[in-house]
């Protein structure tokens, strides 16, 4: 299975609609792969909080229309990164969209862990409550978004649900790029699964983006890593490698669940 991670530049001089159409055209260029992955909130910018309400859209809004058509035109599975979703009740969510090669939206994942420490995304958006996996013909993928990467319990739950790899779109800041690479490798090693971590580049509302999208294999080895410019990474993924890793080093079988915390001395 061939997958392409598209590290998209978010330029404040480019309108959301122009970027939407440009990215759709870039997706159509990936006709020789099976899966295309886009970053978090690439239409508006992950740190462009002041634009969230204005650019929010329903699940069947303009980004859905553009991405569904791009997926069907190209005949690829498309993880279209995430959008600012406006739900029917008016609540905003950071929502990832996944399309089949026929252009059908097969699932949507609302980001569970919101970043901001009582500011920004954490106050402007609702929290998702439901982990999601999507079964492709070759590989079952668990879905996570950016800040989710810091919470290993989500990835363990996705592994228990059958995930052999994780897709992590992000708008990760450059000042914490070391954490981005470290955490992506950690989630791969501890779950013996692929991690496909797709970031933006450019600057969102004055926040420089890390870039450095990467693909990590089930042993924690980095198969490919981007730089800081707009770039496409294309890699081969093999579900048999996940199975072999878990059989050769069956650490997942040795998990001890429900361990009680130590009691304080009386």
Automatic annotation (TrEMBL):
It comes from the Bacteria. The keyword Cell membrane does not apply. Keywords: Hydrolase. It holds the Pfam family CN_hydrolase. InterPro entries: C-N_Hydrolase, C-N_Hydrolase_sf, UPF0012_CS. GO terms for molecular function: hydrolase activity. Residues 1-239 form the CN hydrolase domain. The keyword Hydrolase applies. Coiled coil: none annotated. Belongs to the carbon-nitrogen hydrolase superfamily. NIT1/NIT2 family. This is Carbon-nitrogen family hydrolase.
